[in-house]
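Listing S7. Sequence submitted for prediction.
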Amino acid sequence: MKNYIITIGGTGARCLESLVHLSAGGVFEKDVSVLHIDADKDNGNWLRAFTVINQYKRIKHLIRTNETEFFRRKVAEDVDDIRFYPLPEKGTNTYYTSLDEYVGDSELTKILFTPEIRRDKWDVGFKGRSSLGATATAGAFNWDKAPWHKLHSDVAASLANSEEVRVFLIGSVFGGTGSSIFPTIGKFFGDEFGKYSGFSLGGAILFPYFKYTVPEGKKADYADPSQFLVKTKLHMQYYVSLGAQNPFKKIFMLGEKEYKKVPAGVGAKDQENPPHELLSIGV
């Protein structure tokens, strides 16, 4: 059996960190291949997960893992290859950073988005705007490009050898990156591999579990916490509407009745959320 876990956005990065800790404790019976997706390159949650992955690898090479279950499983053999930046490419290692820059003077985007949203920079994510995130990342998932080409080859080879393959996605439904990319990737995998009996696609969607106070006069720079539940309801209606076309075999939904108060962080290194039990349950 091959297991692939794809974590998405800031919440996904926190779940990735939890996954590494669980692997260190000997929870997993099989190795886990990991891919993390985020438009915010310097997200504090990702940088923290990156550090933990490196520490895991160093410890794994120092101990005799054949004599213990601790640190035995492979989680990320090459950290540089496990993160995917989903924004549209402008050139070699350069990317479009706003909708206006990407599509230019488009009449359609003028109808769909306000001038402020079209000019807003993507370098720290989509600030809770899933429609913007879905538009910006629509062309990012292509089986002919890295890292998807190798992933496709590995999954196809396993299925051809009658080996079971499980792909599991993790992200939030109330922010911008997770809510926009989660369903896109689900369809991406479902269209390609859903016809195989040995392929299973699942996911964990995290409902709101934290809140923060937006600084005075900075509302446009942050995802609006007062809209988290509204966005969650709309996204759940979307998954219900898929009916038989839903590519997921199972989706687990996790949330909290009481939200944890966290410092406001617009993105980049400022977004480093504290630990929460849901992040381990999601894995």
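Caption to Listing S7: primary sequence and predicted structure tokens for the chain studied. The two ends are 18 Å apart (CA to CA). The chain has one domain: 2-87+122-281.
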